[in-house]
Amino acid sequence: MGATASTRAGFSSNESGSVAVIFGLAMIPIFVMMGSALDYTRAATMRTRLNRLSDRAALAAVKAAAQKEADCVLAKSSTGDCSLSQIQTLGEAAGAQYILADMAFQNYGTAKTLTLAKNDTSWSATVNYTAEMPAAMTKLMGFNSIPVKGSVTSNISMGSQLYLNVRMLLDNSMSMGIGATSDDITRMQALTGCAFGCHTTSYATTYYKAPKAQGIRFRIDDLRDATTALVATAKTVTASNARNHIKMAAYSFDHTTDPLVALTSDLTAVGSAVQALDLPTADDGTQAADAIAWLASQTPNSGDGLAPDRPQEVAFLVTDGVEDGIYTGWNGMSAPTGLPLSWWSPSLTKANTGAFPVGSCDALKQKDVIVAVVYTTYVPFVGTEQYDKLIGPFASNIEPNLQSCATNGYFYVASQPGDIQKGMQQLFNKAMAATALRLTQ
pTM of the full predicted structure? Predict the structure, then answer.
């Protein structure tokens, strides 16, 4: 009897086992919380997947509608399967198949809507979806599933479907050797005593290779990069549309015009060819008006962009707008012109420099070519005899003369780093959009 009482007393006084009980009870909500976090992580992953799926579906819808509309415009049809309602049905079906074929949506999707609409020159598709992700641990909290929903919108312009021939006329004269930024100009002057790079055979080591080795960039480098980026944009458009409807050509010019690549739909070849754009190896001046005249002779009348044999013609001119015949003796520029420098021999009575002449682009415009001009501003070194005499007399004429060359609304002043690329991209996009707008009026 004494032993039994002692044992009972021992059990009642021993509390060590309660720790395990308390720990076990405490772990229950911890496991539930961990399980809930896992459930919600799975739901978030599912939402990401369905958002991507919806994005592809919306893009497929607008792409199918825009391509069908372009084909209908080409066929000059607006009835039957070319009616707006039928084009919408076609686009919505193209998008819906992406969603319905997805295993995740088949298993967990509960509802979807795909709405396709025409807005002036573009198509817009919006996808809304809902789904239920089966719960695991959150079932213990009374939830059988976790709701997932999302909405995605995609747009595409009909202009990106049209046939374009883009011919780029790129100034690679010596003045494009100016430092690309104010910092590059300062570093050039500190290194060589001159703000311009020079690629001529006798000066290249000091005025071209040495600055390059120091990481100094010239304006020609910015122009090369901007042209490369524009070609990449065109490649993206054609790849998205799965059709080779954009052709491009590139030409450099100083006193003559030299083809970098002839007109072609092989945009990879165009991108490779423009890498050769650089300063000339001899200072032979600049004859931009002659380059434009040559381009006009090579460019046919522009079409409406609706078929491969009727492309919309677009001409890009990227230049600082200064004509220069000092070293060649060419004096075809319009007044006012530059003045001879004080240290020149008496035989040099005319500076042979002038602003890009008004009327030079009329021949292109008469062919309904869109003329896009990017003016790479001529840096004013006021107070130096070279600038004050060679450029100063006509400096105020450069910008308005170039603007008169451009089709209305297609003039861009590139005065800051990165502006050349920004201007070329902006004018290219405008050409596509404006062509589409003209078709729908």
Answer: 0.68
